[in-house]
Amino acid sequence: MSVERRHLPWSADEAAALVLDWSRDGEWRSAVRRMETEPAGPARVGQRITEELRFAGGTFVTPTTITAAEARSASFAGGNATAAVEGRRTVVPEADGGCTVVLEVDVRMTGPLAVLNPVLAPVYRRRLASEADALAALAQATSSTARSAEPTSRA
To answer: Which residue, 38, 107, 113, 153, is the most exposed by fewest CB within 10 angstroms?
Structure first.
């Protein structure tokens, strides 16, 4: 299982609104080409997700289901004929008013392609780290924009 943690300057509720609504993954996951959720909206148990992404030069479609969901966390599992995926996204409030987002993902090739797992595992880890970095950069950029738009008091 690959795990990435990033501190964000957003409140836990702001972060959860983004990372626990899979239909918004394209805002921070560059490999996502299409993401469909049924029903739409934040993660809920039984929600079905169809993810289409570009990875390693190919396009992959992975159906996934939300298996557990709370206000600030959701677990998922799914796969297709060649891969199985499972994981969890968690948002933890922090004392500074920000939050920590924890992304956990395990992707395994199945069947005859399972022999590729040792080679692909580092690639999956790098991709997850890159996605976590992009999420942190988005949070930082939008927090900076929001702060610069706030009116300043004049003496």
So the answer is: 153
